[in-house]
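User: Okay, second chain of the day. Same drill as before: sequence in, structure tokens out.
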Amino acid sequence: MSIKTEADMFERELQKLYHAELEILDLNGDLAEAAASEEIRELFAGHREDTVAQITRIEEIFELAELPLEERGSPIMEGLLAEKDEFVNEVESDELRDLDAIGVGTINERIEITLLDRLVLLAESLDHPEAVVNRLEQNRSEAESALRKMQEFRERRRES
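Assistant: Same drill. Structure tokens below.
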């Protein structure tokens, strides 16, 4: 896909976000399974419902923006999945497993927030309907909430 306009960029970034969210369904399941503590397992397992809702909103955005529903892979997401695989296959200590799960989860949420920021900016610039911007902002709010939960876990670990 050749990117010549903001509309092209919006479509590409939306496809990348859609692909990322579909991958995140599996990623969070893998992180929950690999975590040592119940708290971390519940954190990632509990995020599944949010991710499904985010995917639904992205699908609605494709429809509202009159774009074909397609996903596009991203080198950033592939790198994150490789990082997760390395952690799952190599980290043996329970304490380190939880820290690594939180680390991978934090990277994921930051990537998601960055993609959403870019999409909001483009959607506003392209005068997409308010419903598009609202859905993007709702997904961003949920990503920020998930990131805060992970940061709170890190802070509790630091203080203990």
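The chain has six helices and no strands.

User: Thanks, on to the next one.
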